[in-house]
Here is the input.
Amino acid sequence: MLLILLFFYCVPRGVVKITPAHDMNDYQAGLRHNLEFIEVFDENFKMGNLVPEYAGMDLLDARREIVKKLDEIGALVRTEDYTHNVAKCERCKNTIEPKVSEQWFVSMKDLAKRAADSVRNGETKFVPQRYEKQYFHWLDNIQDWCISRQLWWGHRIPAYTCDECGHINVSKTTPEKCEKCGNTKLTQDPDTLDTWFSSALWPFSTLGWPNKESEDYKDFYPTQTLVTGFDIITFWISRMMTQGLEFTDEVPFKDVLVHGIVRDRQGRKMSKTLGNGIDPLDIIDQYGTDSLRFSLLSGTTMGNDIRFMPEKLEQASNFANKIWNAAKFITMNLADEEKVRDFCYEVFEKEHKYNPELLKVEDKWILNKFDKLVLDVSKNIDNYDLGIALDKIYNFIWNEFCDWYIEMVKPRIYSEDEATRVAVSDILNHVFGSSLKLLQPFMPFVTSEIYSKLICFGTPDLMIAKWPDIREEFIFDKEEAIIEKLKKLIIEIRNIRTKMNVHPAKKSKLLIISSNLNDEIKEAEEFLLKLGFANEIVIVKDEKEIPQNAVSIVVDELKVYIPFEELVDIEEERKRLEGEKSKLEAEVLRGEKMLSNPGFVNKAPETKVNEEKAKLENYKQMLANVEERLNSLK
Here is the structure.
């Protein structure tokens, strides 16, 4: 019977350590007198003295020997292979042997219901909301929680066993004697608490609890937002909710912000086993901390996994360089603070209010764009759309501010008129400094360093600077629409010049017909001349004044004409195009002959034939473009 019992314990279904301390079921209790002080196997899976001939043998070896023994005594019916799930260790890949042992549990049914109901009734919400399903599935199907662990480190379980009567004494402090028999010799349970049990107490235990009158507890409990990964919703979030409600009668946090996992380029989870992990310190040494933060947030949406892309680090590093160079330009041209006060503000002490007489159309455009940016970014952050917020800031600083506004105001920043220079330098300082406030949560180091070099009306410490004012109404929408039209116009001018191979140094006249923007065009004349590669802007009344060979551009109600002779030397351009046409005709002829040759088409690899077909189509398209341009010269 002992041999059969031993075989039962040693087969893959499970193994059991039997000692007198176990609370045995009926059939185990019936064998108690035979199994006193007998172990099936020890902690190292070496066989005990249950059957002397197997004592000290490795568990796996004992299994094979027991099967042989059963066969010898005629007790083995048959052996057969079958497929089943076998758990393997993630690190060493060996089979995991189940072991039944005595553990401490927490009854979870009532605790779980209260935690689930708190989310269902809106006391706590998940962002994104879809992760509530995972939370509810765990709590609605809860099992009792095994809280004891056989580890070297951790919070010891506060249970003390009396050496005399075996009674278990549970106490906050070490008891002096057994509460049942009075014996003074007690032994503390060697097990430690599950890590998540200790972590579940974190929201309130760190704030002075159980003293609910402590300042930290009153100020910071419950907390507003908890940020976590979806993989520990069941382990951590659910248990913080149950413990918080049980011990404080309040949910520990209002929002649970769930982020994804950083994966490698192939979408695999980073792990030591795969060897695909990234050391953030190496990335920081190469690109900087801000670049790493930027790369992990840009283009992401909350709750979705992130693929680590090295090219995003390059983008982030380039952006850091962009704002650094913009800062150098601005600080080099900043006026003295006293002059800014004198020239730019009506009531400086009460309100940061600009003198409207000093604002030009491009200033009103950038101020209006920035006000809309503040509103959008604030809403995105409130909604936890951090990736969208960062991308909006990035596009504004790089495109609108650096690529457009700075270039627009360069003629004014170098003006001989002091009032003009001071006014525009202050707009640059204000918009750039305020943009850094929006960017600071995402790139705190480079923004703080730059901000300290600007004129700061308030604290020079960006970390505690006031968030830009949020405006629901925008007072310069008309000017913004005008500048957007002029931007389209400038882009079209650049495209035409590029298409016609006009050198940037060659300037041309711009003839503009506009029904209602004449004053604004005159106001924007300085930057239109610079960015439109023009030497003169002429506003004409009708098309009768336009030369016949002028190139036309239409942007909404704006019509712009450029005299062709001012863009290119017509005769020289015709000669150049004729030469290009001859070369392309030769390439088209060569391709057609090759593809009409059956010997090439039938014998050459399919990829080579397709490559030649693509080349031929490309040359035909290029030839058609050249012929079109030649016709336009006539």
User: Anything to note?
Assistant: The chain has a mean pLDDT of 83. Residues 410 and 527 are 8 Å apart (CA to CA). The first strand starts at residue 15 and ends at 16.
